[in-house]
Each structure stands twice: as C-alpha cells, then as structure tokens.
Specification:
Length: 148
C-alpha cells in the first residue's frame, strides 16, 4: 500500500512541476538598438530555456528586424519594419538568440515570451516516467486483486 501511495504522489508531483514550469513568462525591458560608427547596429542577446511563443514589439526605425540563433547562425524570425512592428512567432529551441536590426533610425524593441515547453529530451523523460508509473501502478493493483 505504501508503494501505491508513493507512486501516486510522484506522478502528481511530476504533473505539478510541468504545469508550473510551463506558465513561465520572460519579459525583456525595451532595448534601444543604436547605430555604431561602422554603420552597424547594436544587437541584443537573450536566452530561451525551451520552445516558447514570442511577441516582439519595436518602434522608431525603418528596415529589417531579425532574430538569429547564436550558435547555428540560423535566422528564426525576420520582418520588415516601417516605424512600427508587432509580431508573434515561435522560438523553436532552447539556446541563446540575438535580436538585430538593419536599416535607418534608432528602433527600440521589447520581447515577451510565454508558454514554455521544455526541450524534447525533458518532455520524453516526463512521458517515459508517466508510462512507467502507470505500468507499475496497474501491476500493483492487479497483484492486490489476485491476492485477495
């Protein structure tokens, strides 16, 4: 009976931890992307702990705003901006990303990221543990029924 209670408590703990973590919101304060002497613009680097929905709001410039993965150098978001930009898009993987601007003016941008989904490896671990707990729980219940 103790094993049964322990399995139920551990599965409830896993469900609670997953739901608490998925309600995380990451909000960056507005960042001004100033031009440097070489005609390049400052960039803004940020970290994302897993797949998330992002909402980017920029104002004050004309050009192209884009977000790249720092390590793979792949562009995950790119949009034209004409003094104002509001866009929603997914950030597909955990990692470091850089927000950059090409154009004229001095844009100010802010990011709101929400609906965190842990990396695939973590999700697979949760699913595997859930299946394992279900199998053990059903074996214990079946065993209890046979021994009565």
């Amino acid at each position: 009976m103790t094993i049964l209670i322990a399995l139920l408590m551990s599965s409830l703990g896993l469900m609670a931890a997953y739901s608490i973590k998925s309600n995380v919101e990451i909000n960056t304060s507005p960042v001004a992307l100033k031009s440097t002497e070489g005609g390049e613009y400052d960039s803004f680097v940020f970290y994302v702990p897993g797949w998330m929905k992002a909402r980017l709001t920029c104002s004050g410039g004309t050009g192209v705003v884009y977000i790249k993965n720092v390590f793979s150098n792949s562009t995950i978001f790119e949009a034209n901006m004409n003094q104002q930009l509001t866009a929603e898009f997914p950030i597909p993987y955990e990692g470091d990303y850089v927000l950059q601007f090409r154009g004229s003016g001095m844009p100010t941008c802010a990011l709101l990221m929400r609906d965190l989904h842990p990396p695939k490896q973590v999700q697979d671990t949760y699913y595997g543990l859930g299946i394992l707990v279900s199998v053990i729980l059903s074996m214990i219940l079946a065993g209890m029924r046979w021994f009565k």
